[in-house]
Structures are given as C-alpha cells and as structure tokens.
Amino acid sequence: DDDNQTTDIYSIYGGPTLTTQIDKAAVSAGYRVGYTRVEQSDVGIVNNAAIDVFDDSVTHNASASIATRPGDYLPVGVTISGGYAQEDISNLDQRVRDAAVRADVTVPVSRTFALVGGIGYENVEVSSRDAVRDVNGAPVVDNNGRFGTDKTRPRQMAFETDGLIWDAGVSWRPSNRTALEARVGRRY
Q1: For residue range 16-56, what is the model confidence (pLDDT) as tens digits?
Q2: Would you state the pLDDT for residue 146?
Q3: pLDDT at position 43, please?
C-alpha cells in the first residue's frame, strides 16, 4: 500500500425539513448545510508545476414552496417556490451562488393526463479571488499544492447570469406510484 497515492474524502450534510398543510395548500421548506474535505498526498506538484488541489467547501441550500392541487381552490394546480444555494470553496476563496423563484401550473386534461408549465427568475454567480503572487508574479503554492488566496484583492466574477426561466410539457400519472413527465424550456 503506497500512502502517497491515497485520497480521503470526508463529508457531512444535513438540516431540517418542514412539511405541513395550511387548509388545502401543501407547504414545505427545508435548509441543508454541508461540509466536504478532501485530503490528498503528494499531488500538488506535477512535472515541477503547481496544481491547485481541492481542500474543503461549505454548502448552504434553502428552499420553500406552497402548492395546491387542481380543484382545491382553482380548476388548475398552482405551485409557488423559491430556492437559494451557495457553496464556499477554500481554493482561491471561490463562491457559487444560485437563487431562483418560480410559479408552476398544472392543467388537468383527464384523470391521468395534464399539461404543465412554469415560469420564474434565476440569478447565478460564480466568483473567486486571485492567488498570492511572489515578486516574479508566479502564484505562491503551499506544501499541499494549493494556491494561497490574496484576500486584499477584490472578488472576480468568473460567471454571472440572470434572467427568465420557463418550461412547459405534459404529465401522465396512471397511478399514485407511477408518473411520467416531459418538459422543454429555457434557462437564462
């Protein structure tokens, strides 16, 4: 067994969930927090060049929705939902954020067949900071091959988008345990 070729991954993820009824409306909400750590041996330098190896991250995920079935209040089913997710990654102080809200409608055509569709808004941002650099401008690397993060530099956007999201399709539910759904749509 060569200890220089091992990777240990530690991860924990959990949080509360609420599911209840308010009159005929189904209400749900949840929050999850997670932590992942990767420990690798001697993988930070390859062919005398530094590579930035994943260290650890913390994730947060929150969601909430309220839904009614067709016939409860309206002839169609309506769901309003929202969610927020963020992951903070130690390498170069990376951050991934995704927030969205949407409304969905279910229009029954028969007892087992329905038309479905939704529309909403989503915002996604991915950012990081620059590496600490030596006097020659080369990134400073620690003993594990990870770049040092320059906290004095402003956060740099690597990816940013927001806009309308929508989808529409059909739903077939021949029994309480069987369902088939097909949708087409657009994000951003």
Answers
A1: 999 999 999 999 999 999 999 988 765 555 555 556 677 89
A2: 77
A3: 56
Q: If you average pLDDT over residues 56-81, what whole number do you get?
A: 96
The DSSP result for the chain, as a single string, is --GGG-EEEEEEEE--EEEEEETTEEEEEEEEEEEEEEEESS-SEETTEE-----EEEEEEEEEEEEE-TTTSSSSEEEEEEEEEEEEETGGGEEEEEEEEEEEEEEESSSSEEEEEEEEEEEEEEEE-PBPB-TTSPBPB-TTSPBPB-TTSPPEEEEEEEEEEEEEEEEEEEETTEEEEEEEEE--
* Owner of token pair 């509360």: 16
Candidates 169, 81, 94; CA nearest to 129 is 94
Closest CA to 123 of 167, 91, 157, 78: 157
CB 10 within 8 A of CB 37: yes
Instruction: Evaluate if pTM is beyond 0.85.
Output: no
Placement of tokens 């994730």 in the chain: 59
